[in-house]
UniProtKB/TrEMBL annotation:
It comes from Actinomycetospora succinea. Its cofactor is FAD. Residues 121-218 form the Acyl-CoA oxidase/dehydrogenase middle domain. Belongs to the acyl-CoA dehydrogenase family. Keywords: FAD, Flavoprotein, Oxidoreductase. Transmembrane segments: none annotated. Pfam families: Acyl-CoA_dh_1, Acyl-CoA_dh_M, Acyl-CoA_dh_N. This is Alkylation response protein AidB-like acyl-CoA dehydrogenase. Residues 4-115 form the Acyl-CoA dehydrogenase/oxidase N-terminal domain. The keyword Oxidoreductase applies. Residues 230-378 form the Acyl-CoA dehydrogenase/oxidase C-terminal domain. InterPro entries: Acyl-CoA_DH_CS (IPR006089), Acyl-CoA_Oxase/DH_mid-dom (IPR006091), Acyl-CoA_Oxase/DH_mid-dom_sf (IPR046373), AcylCo_DH-like_C (IPR036250), AcylCo_DH/oxidase_C (IPR009075), AcylCoA_DH/ox_N (IPR013786), AcylCoA_DH/ox_N_sf (IPR037069), AcylCoA_DH/oxidase_NM_dom_sf (IPR009100). The keyword Flavoprotein applies.
């Protein structure tokens, strides 16, 4: 896929922002495990949260491919910042944009699209993420209110000072075939009974925001149902298809960042009287890293092209997520090796990529789940 002139201009703008504004400061946020509010505000002002949101909701009126282009450039420099944008749009905004009522869109989207507020999506529970249909959280109608009880695990952007809402999946009834009826319901931050646990201590993505959430007789108006009652799970699966392309773009950026850093370091660092980049053992590593990155980019471009053309892209999204997250993890391991001891120091970008890239193989559908989806599309 050839980037359009608009997408290329956006890519260059985000590249400059990532290199000039994010790169110099993010290491300290990461080490202190602080959320980078000032960078999020800048991304909001740049319109990044509103890229695929129509202008009537204060968005940029662009498309989802634009979001992916931005994510690749951010992921190249730092994954915490990139995932804050990815989750803010793909999990916070898209369920409302795709399935919300006009009233919900008018009320919530302008603040989300401008980055003044963040939204989260709570699907995963302690009892299971891949098997999302195993949801135990319940929502029962009591007059004109839903009463929600349960817990959600690992929810991104759910506990910042600017988080305005979390949309959660909950069992709202039993279907005629005995299966659970799962619906999506919007819960505003601060609703009584809605508790956000302290931040997790994570291996990576340390400047991003992740919490366990609990709901104890949380009452929200019946009109906070997002989309169609009983379609919450199906709605979320379609949101995840797009989200996989976004994560694939972010992962490609991470893989590229490892190539960038390794190339630079291999030219500078000397051992046995020569730059380590003059040794074929290092050159082969970087050549493999480059090959993985190119394949990852081709894969997300392929999925994005089909998505933008309105063609089926489920399999392509799964392939892109699988290939690119593997590329990020493999490149992070090789880049850390090239950096030697410095690669193990948190202040170095490759160390952050080493810690961060593992979750790319887990979040928004594990690699095994991607393989299940691909095999299903092959008729297995
Ligand atoms: C930092 C972070 C942020 C996150 N943000 C969010 C968020 O914002 N919203 C949200 O809802 N969730 C979020 N998650 C949750 C994430 O999506 C889940 O962790 C992920 O989907 C995997 O679910 P699980 O952890 O329950 O693992 P499990 O589903 O229990 O899987 C455990 C292992 O079993 C494998 N497995 C499961 N089923 C099969 C099978 N049929 N065949 C073969 N292997 C199988 C899996 O691939 C995995 O290797 C986040 C997680 C993290 C760590």
């Amino acid at each position: 896929m050839q980037l359009s002139d608009e997408h290329e201009a956006l890519r260059a703008t985000v590249e400059e922002f990532a290199q000039k504004e994010v790169a110099p400061v993010i290491g300290e946020y990461y080490i202190k495990e602080k959320f980078p509010y000032d960078l999020v505000a800048q991304m909001g002002e740049m319109g990044l949260f509103g890229l695929p949101v129509p202008e009537e909701y204060d968005g940029m009126g662009g498309d989802y491919v634009a979001l992916c282009v931005a994510l690749e450039e951010l992921g190249r420099v730092d994954q915490s910042v990139a995932i804050t944008l990815e989750a803010g749009v793909s999990l916070g905004i898209m369920p409302l944009l795709r399935f919300g009522s006009d009233e919900q869109k008018g009320r919530w989207l302008p603040d989300l699209a401008t980055g003044r507020h963040l939204g989260g999506f709570g699907l995963t529970e302690a009892g299971g993420g891949s098997d999302a249909g195993a949801t135990r959280t319940t929502a029962k109608l009591d007059g004109d209110h839903w009463v929600i009880n349960g817990t959600k695990a690992f929810i991104t952007n759910s506990g910042t000072d600017i988080t305005s809402l979390v949309t959660v999946t909950a069992v709202t009834d039993k279907q005629s075939d005995g299966k659970k009826e799962i619906s999506a319901i919007l819960v505003p931050s601060g609703t009584p009974g809605f508790t956000v646990a302290p931040s997790y201590s994570k291996v990576g993505w340390n400047a991003s925001d992740t919490h366990e959430l609990s709901f104890d007789d949380v009452r929200v108006p019946a009109e906070n149902l997002v989309g169609t009652r009983g379609r919450g799970y199906a709605q979320f699966l379609s949101i995840l298809d797009e989200g996989r392309v976004a994560i694939a773009a972010l992962s490609t950026g991470a893989a590229q960042g490892c190539v960038d850093e390794s190339l630079r370091y291999a030219r500078e660092r000397e051992a046995f009287g020569h730059a380590i980049g003059s040794y074929q053992g290092i050159q082969f590593k970087i050549a493999e890293m480059e090959a993985r990155t190119v394949c990852a980019r081709l894969a997300w471009h392929d999925a994005a092209e089909k998505m933008a053309a309105g063609q089926p892209f489920k399999k392509e999204a799964a392939v892109a997520k699988l290939v690119s997250s593997n590329a990020a993890m493999d490149n992070a391991r090789d880049a850390t090796q090239i950096f030697g001891g410095y690669g193990f120091m948190n202040e170095y970008p490759v160390a952050r990529h080493y810690r961060d890239s593992k979750i790319l193989e887990i979040g928004e559908g594990t690699s095994e789940v991607q393989k299940i989806l691909i095999a299903r599309h092959l008729g297995m």
